Amino acid sequence: MNFYEGLNKLKPHRVLVKFIKNNPEIKTAIDLGCGAGRDTKFLIKNGVNVTAIDRVDVTKFLNEGLEEEEKARLNFVQAQFDDAVLPNADLVVAYESLPFCKKDALVELVSKIKEALNTNGYFLCNFFGKHDSWDENEKVTCLDKDEIEELLKDFKILELNEIEKDGETAMHQTKHWHVYWVIAQKQ
To answer: Which numeric CATH code is attached to 3-186?
Structure first.
């Protein structure tokens, strides 16, 4: 099983499910690092038009299980975050993708996200913390709470929850997770 096949079996993130239930006015979204589409497909099935962005062509996974009228609400863009043009949107979702940006590129990306969001738009994301077992990997950016708050200083942070636990990756490898889950709003 490859990485994307593993992701394809996962349900949408609980934070997003709860958020959409409580915010039915969301009509447009960007899913940064959409992977196999666990969140993209959930949003589409809830009437949201989604621009899904990933560095790998995941069209096959994104289209799986979607009706023709649902596929019409999907715009897939294969691009690195640095190169991606972000359309205006009510919501940007970036789960398990931002930590794979270099710190300086992350600052630029957050600025692009803010520009893309409509007034009062929402940014749902997560960051890996300093206790995450991937903190020693030079390809992963792990941040502490103060660094996250500084990165998101131009947003109103509605929720910032820290979770630390042992668990599995999408490839069924055991690791220690230290994750900050964020809901922020453009002012």
So the answer is: 3.40.50.150
Burial of 150 from C-beta contacts in 10 A (0-12 / 13-18 / 19+): exposed
Residue 64, classed as helix, strand or coil, is coil
Q: What's the rounded Cα separation, in Å, for the pair 61 and 43?
A: 15
103-125: buried (b, 16+ CB within 10 Å) or exposed (e) per residue?
eeebeebbebbbebbeeebbbbb
Q: From its phi and psi, is residue 92 left (phi > 0), alpha (psi between -120 and 50) or beta? A: beta
Who contacts 153 (Cβ-Cβ below 8 Å, separation ≥6)? Answer: none
**In a structure prediction context, what are the per-residue pLDDT tens digits for the chain, which is 187 residues long?**
455 555 556 789 999 999 999 999 999 999 999 999 999 999 999 999 999 999 999 999 999 999 999 999 999 999 999 899 999 999 999 999 999 999 999 999 999 999 999 999 999 999 999 999 999 999 999 999 999 999 999 999 999 999 999 998 877 789 999 999 999 999 8
- Kindly state the DSSP code that residue 42 receives in the 8-state scheme: H
- Write the DSSP assignment of 98-145 as a string of letters: GGGS-HHHHHHHHHHHHHHEEEEEEEEEEEE-TTSGGGG-TT--B--H
Q: What is the pTM for the complete model shown?
A: 0.93
Where are the domains positioned within the chain? Answer: 3-186
Residue in the block written with tokens 């205006």: 88
